[in-house]
Write a structure and sequence with these properties.
14 helices, single chain, 12 strands, Amidase signature (AS) enzymes, alpha/beta, about 35% helix, twelve-stranded mixed beta sheet
């Protein structure tokens, strides 16, 4: 294509914005050089782009379900894609979170800004699930750009509801995944987690959700929010299905710089029947009794679950990480500026990292966000305004400090886990909140951001963490979170399976 050259006025505006002070003949001199450089970009269009493979035909491209076809509003799209004829997921139905590329299927990412975007490639995790014999039956709904922990900002209406009580929130941003799993409409779903978005819906909707170690599962082909916070992983109705799905999804793909080069997945399925005898379980003191957040019934249910583990031979003690109480402050500083730079100003992908870029997504979203910025959700608007202000006025100082503090936070958890094998705490300090009746900014933000106290910390540090159901309050599920050292997902699954089995016996 013929490149569009900048006008002198456009170059003057850029010069002024950057403080270069160019004008008159000097500006014209620079204009000639800049135009030559822009013309050189035409050669890029003669080179073929790199695309992720699409290995399996779409038996049914599908449709957007409504009414009785979508009882808890958890599906953004229904389809049918058959995977390999055999494999560990043969016979399993899978939902893909709608921030993830599935070729030929619309990807809304919960926002009208993305209306009309259809990927032409499959994300790595999609291909891996199909290679394992899964059948993909749809895309699960999400809130706007997945920046919402409750589930109040999604598009289109109606948004996913909590299957246990439909006037309550399901937890988010993998709210569609949590809702359809808890309602029995799929066996396994994918989730994404930047502030807790796998574990929050697992806790509030009542299913299992595992956020792996940062980089264990490739994020390739999934809409980024902030590279240092981005995680993806499995959600399921039981621990065993989570383990099988993780076994399939984990490992390097050579396309995601979030992944360490030495990465070797563990034997997650093999860990399920090891039991917990002799395992040291640490109740994280600061994860309980959170001021103005914790509900006593939630704390009591998690402590009771720890006692059940103790009855199975685990050693239970209390450990303290004082910095945990400040972790949300650290996360905020990273999320505000990092998400602004990458998800908004960077057209989703940003720059300065090596990996696969979904160029079709970057191009579509970049044009759409500039034309429809008013359609961003309140959560994204607040994030972008705070992030822009802090980066411009304080020169990214607080983002930089937060990343430094994140390493210290990780060290503090690691020191605690030198004394115990896993940390345990409530996933969310409270059970599901009622959906806000109004749409004021305070009501929307309260519904979207009120439940991150325990989850966001482990997106900053990258530790693996899993939420499993451990009780209920008035019929609303309570989630227990199990955290382990880096690449110790086997240990988490070992504990989770032991508790799930014991809970099933106790339940009859």
């Amino acid at each position: 294509m013929t490149m569009s050259r900048p006008t002198l006025a456009e170059l003057k505006s850029i010069s002024d914005r950057l403080g270069f002070g160019l004008d008159g003949d000097e500006l014209s001199e620079y204009w000639e050089v800049v135009c030559q450089a822009v013309d050189g970009y035409e050669d890029m269009d003669t080179l073929a782009d790199a695309k992720l493979p699409v290995k399996y035909p779409r038996q049914e491209v599908g449709y957007r379900p409504t009414g009785e076809d979508n009882p808890v509003n958890g599906w953004a799209w229904k389809c049918r894609i058959e995977g390999a004829p055999n494999g560990p997921l043969k016979g399993k139905t899978v939902g893909i979170k709608d921030n993830t590329a599935v070729a030929g299927l619309p990807m809304l990412n919960g926002s009208p800004i993305m209306e009309g975007y259809v990927p032409d490639e499959d994300a790595t995790v999609v291909t891996r699930l199909l290679d394992a014999g899964a059948t993909i039956i749809g895309k699960t709904a999400v809130p706007a750009f997945c920046f919402d922990g409750g589930g109040v900002t999604g598009y289109p209406e109606p948004q996913p509801v909590n299957p246990h009580r439909t006037d309550h929130l399901p937890g988010s941003s993998s709210n569609g995944s949590g809702a359809v799993l808890a309602n029995g409409e799929a066996d396994i779903c994918t989730g994404g987690d930047q502030g807790g978005s796998i574990r929050l819906p697992a806790s509030w909707s009542g299913c299992c959700g595992l956020k792996p170690t940062h980089g264990l599962v490739p994020y390739t082909g999934i809409f980024p929010i902030e590279t240092t916070l981005d995680h993806t992983g499995p959600m399921a109705r039981n621990v065993a299905d989570c383990a099988v799905a993780l076994q399939v999804m984990a490992g390097p793909d050579g396309l995601d710089p979030r992944q360490p080069s030495h990465l070797e997945p563990g034997d997650y399925v093999g860990a399920l029947d090891k039991g917990v005898k002799g395992l040291r379980v640490g109740l994280l003191k600061e994860g309980f009794g959170i001021p103005d957040a914790s509900e006593p019934e939630v704390d009591e249910a998690v402590r009771a679950a720890a006692s059940a583990l103790q009855s199975l031979g685990a050693e239970v003690s209390e450990v303290s990480v004082p910095l945990h109480s400040r972790a949300l402050t650290i996360w905020n500083a990273i999320a505000f500026e990092g998400a602004t730079a990458q998800m908004v100003a960077g057209d989703g992908y940003g720059v300065n990292w090596k990996g696969h870029y979904s160029t079709g997504l970057v191009d579509f979203y970049g044009r759409a966000r500039r034309a429809r910025g008013r359609d961003y959700s309140p959560t994204v608007k607040v994030t972008a305004m705070v992030g822009t202000y802090m980066s411009e006025v304080y020169n990214h100082r607080y983002y930089a400090k937060a990343q430094n503090l994140g390493r210290i936070l990780r060290q503090r958890y690691d020191e605690a886990m030198d004394k115990v094998d896993v940390l345990v705490m409530p996933t969310t300090a409270m059970v599901a909140l009622k959906r806000p009746e109004g749409r004021t900014l305070a009501e929307v933000l309260g519904g979207a951001l009120a439940n991150l106290h325990n989850t966001a910390a482990f997106d900053v540090t990258g530790h693996p963490a899993m939420s499993i159901p451990c009780g209920d309050k008035g019929g609303l599920p309570i989630g227990m979170m199990i955290v382990a050292p880096y690449f110790s997902e086997e240990r988490i699954l070992q504990v989770a399976q032991a508790f799930e089995t014991e809970a099933a016996k106790a339940g009859g």
